[in-house]
Fold each of these.
Amino acid sequence: MVVKANLKHIRSLHRSKGRATHNQYIIEGRRLFQEALLTNEHLHLAYFTDTFQSNFPGLVKDVIKECPGAKNVSPAEMKTMSATETPSGILGVCFIPDNQVLDDKLNCNWLFLDSISEPGNMGTLLRTAAWFGINNISLSGNCVDIYNPKVVRSGMGAHFNITCILDANIKQFNATHAIIGADHKGTNLANHKIEAPWVLVLGNEAHGISKRTRENINHLIAIPRIGAGESLNVAVAGGILMEKLKAIN
């Protein structure tokens, strides 16, 4: 049984204010827990239902070993804690890492996200960046919270494999990186000579890259359209460009 104070605490983590106050965020689901254990992510709290334990006894055993305070809860309690309509049966709380600084990452490639607003797009971009080994992310101050439960779920464990600078300014890269902006008015990547380290800038779903950020871009690139359609989803476009950039350096 979970005491009301704990339920209230976990419910507060559904909101950005609560996450900022406690410096914690929620993870849910088998795959996120598997990734957390694989990457040695510290689990502050963990809860699971009887049904989940029956279906995945090995995983629950590993979770209890990593987090001795893990508790069995009722389906009703899990539903109260969960940020989803249909809880998976396992939920945990992790600490938000301290905000990173650029100084020790000057030779790395970066992804700069400028006013990305949709949680699904944010999570997919983080997941894709981790897949391509782009483990350093900068986010402008008006991006969706990367620890929003929807972002965490769609990130599929990317949060355990990346470092982030929050409320970042693109100017911090001016002296050290080639700054590349994705925009439909840009030209084919093949027309640009780009050397690492670089920063790939992706802008807001509706409005693109902000004026303040655009003023610092060295290369404006686009994905040539071969068929039909007005534009690409930012997460799709980001994945294509990350693959192409990693292929050349």
Note: The mean pLDDT is 94.
Amino acid sequence: MQNALLDTIALEDAHTSGAYVKRDVQIVRGQGARLEDAAGRSYIDCVGGMGAANLGHGHPAILAAIQRQAAELMVCPELFHNPVRAEYQAALCAAAAMPRVFLCNSGAEAIEGAIKATRAATGRPTIVAAMRGFHGRTLGALSATWNKTYRAPFEPLLPEVRHVPFNDADKLADALDETVAAVIVEPVQGEGGVIPAAPGYLRAVADLCRQNGSLLILDEIQTGFGRTGWLFAHQADGVRPDVLCLAKSIAGGLPMGAVLLGERAGTFPPATHGSTFGGNPLACAAGLAALDVLVTGDLVERARERGAAVLDHLRAHLPERAVRDVRGRGLMIGIELRGKVGPVLAALAERGVLALPAGRTVLRLLPPLVISDDDLWAAVATVEEVLSDAV
């Protein structure tokens, strides 16, 4: 077994692109909120597929939908009508209270589509984004992303992009003019440190956009599909975006993304945008099953309730000598440390919990919404132990 493990690691290291810094763990299977490595060790999954596994691993409804659709039809471009796609588009638009949707394959693709849609609708070139925001790594999405480490090797990027402080409506107002097509923000900044929008901020952004004739793009790629305790995080703020970007958990783990278009965004001009695999029947079937699980079950409400309980517990019990802040919404939790997060991630893995960073000093927890209470609180206890040992 050990030789097979080393052979796999060596083989992957020999041929991988170099873009990823890999951890010394080989994951071979998963079930629910548990992952298993090649040596048979079980881990509580608080990585959650980097946000793509809200329904966990091996969810029976997702598996059944994939198996059924794979046997019938997997590929059908949007040159042709398809019943599964039609049903999914209608269901997703109804859930988001938006009339139209463009289906694609990833979050970065969704952001690219949103930039094009808002430029086409307004005839304006400029995009305003938030400092510390993350929107993807393709060139348009990267232009809206703040982190200079991601941006610098690929400059020059799109020139007409401005960044303003997050949660500062006054600075946003100063940045708006007749050239601004859209403002793009996350309801909770994920990669930027798990920073929620302040009460009233999204409403202020929406109002400023309307006054300026600009469109509001909400990036809910990570916050969507129940993660924050609402089907979509902006629903908690009573805000309706002009464009809504979705991906990650949209199809229960299959690659998929979506750009939902409100009335002010209109539609794409014919033949101006497209995607070979976008709206393929396999992803649509999985998406329809995932949406049904979230809409008809209690996972979203439980994420809100259990997330609030976890946040309260961590705020009360984590040592101040090791922790600056605990923040988040639902089961999207960030713990800002006084030191670097890398050693904490390694210590958690040694104790059977896999988690994420959100920058150099923030520990991010994204457990699947299907996680059992026992596993959720075991993960919380392990975080407490590791951070207590760190001081």
Note: The chain has twelve helices and 17 strands.
Amino acid sequence: MLKKYRFFILTMLTISLVAVVSFYSVLTPEKKLPIYQPSMVKFQLVDSTIQHVKRFHKISDFKLVNQNNNIVTNDFYDGKIYVADFFFTTCPGICPIMKENMIDLQNEFIYDDQIMLLSHTVTPEIDSVSVLKDYSIENGVLDSKWNLVTGDKKQIYNLARKSYLVAEDIESELKYDMIHTENFVLIDPLRRIRGFYDGTNDDSIDKLIEDIYLLKQEF
């Protein structure tokens, strides 16, 4: 008798299993990264003019120059996921560690054209194109993957404080001076901030890599 209904029983069990899995999938929300707004970030890192902003924050348009003396604008990153940071070539403190972790990111995604890197110097008066070029060669920067950019100091200051939200203002005789942080910023193809990560911490870099793969699923 059991043999007679074996196929029917197996079929019903399969249907039931599929139903349970489907029901669980519906009830379990898809994991997505948050979309960061200025109001969600430590206020010291955000320009006072946008600290209240709770919606629609995006990276502003920019026009800078990279290590190959090529113009780099936001159009270059259209449709891309990228990681941005701020540094300077003569930095003796956190920058060397950040650089090594950026190299690790470069190597992790070296064959993935959707993932890019962008490093802004905070001392453009020192980090000229030729200085950035020497730095890039010395550190094995892949030009097609990673732009090191310099340019107008006011623009870089505004990007750090009003777009990427990663620098503290300082009192100085020089205009647009700032203290850059160790933060790496994950940007999605719609120019929105999807995460902040400690560029000097291995565990945080591992989380960044995990989140990049998660973000790729979304786009």
Note: Strands lie at 63-66, 71-73, 81-87, 115-121, 146-150, 167-169, 178-180, 183-187, 193-198.
Amino acid sequence: MLNLNPLPDLLALTVLVYVFWSILRQRVGEQLHAWLLGWVFILVHFAVQLFSGRPGALQDTLLAISTVSLELAAVAFILAAGGGKSTPRLRWIAGSAAGATVFYIVLFYANVQSPVLYSLPIGVLLIAAAAVVVPDEGRPTGERNIFMLTFLLLALALAASVYTGHEDFGLECILFVAYLLAGIQYWKNFSRRTTGSITAVAGLVVWAFVFPLSLALVVLRPDVHIQDSVWNLPKYIVAIGILLTLLEEQIDRTEHLALHDALTGLPNRRLLDDRLTKAIERAERNEARVAVLLIDLDGFKQINDTYGHPIGDEVLRIVATRLQMRVRKADTIARAGGDEFLVVVSDLLQPHGATVLAAKLAGDLNEPILLGDVRLRAGASIGIAIYPDDAQTAEDLCARADASMYEQKRRTK
């Protein structure tokens, strides 16, 4: 007979795996692959439980598969929490977690009676845990102390389980470490705290504490029985947090694309108009000046016609980089379209400052551009307009800078 108690969770996890698979079809990424793999292992964990209650060695095998599936899910979550990139440090942490579990299971089911051997995977896993916390000298001391105290208490709990003859408790403690490491890694990787990331971290931490809490109830209050659905709740909190994080990232990406040029990554005309208007309002309050520089690449059309659009696109990206290296971070560089760029210089004290900047930008853009064996030179004509000297509104400033740029082009022909 099948054990149908895990069936609702199995169905829910099947839907969740399908959701992650559907997202992965639309958006490729190593992190998504790791999340999907983790939920597949959780799905295996619940699927195995359908056959629980089998006699003898078969039950031991199913229990081992269930435990290893939970551990491999934690390993996948650790990799996903690190951004999906398999760095040497992440490989060491994840590999230690998986290796400790497998080694512990082999010892337990081989009925090995050696506290020293049981202590080996514990030590390896604690070293891996320390690798997550200790190297981050920039992390607040209080936070690092909390992490280290947690792992110290864990070491004592594991040692107690081994030396009191409860070696099977060690598996639960190892799972606790693995899921706690995933939560810590997720917290460290997402410096921007959002609803999604906080929810996912909280779910992973609560999930980790499910293992020691369930053991504590077995030992201290065997008469208390908590439904499996309660213990499984953190899993769905983690899933909600991850999906919220993915949604937040998609919203941020959409907003970025709406306000930035896809080729160069610079602000587009829409964002520039907003920043220019605010710069003028600030200049009016502070009795300062704002400069608008309109840059047109003189030789870009010839480069595009001669070498093709891929080379032309690369030239535009290089030009954007050179402009960013010259202009202050407080100012705004935007791609106005085609081969035109706009620079908004805020809080300008003297009008000649814009002229000096324009001369430096022209010199930078006149430097040769090397693309393989091809040596190109774009050059630029730069028009300048100053608020409030030349115009009073954002629209008039841009129009005046445009007229100034064409005037310069006529003079240099």
Note: The longest strand covers residues 289-297.
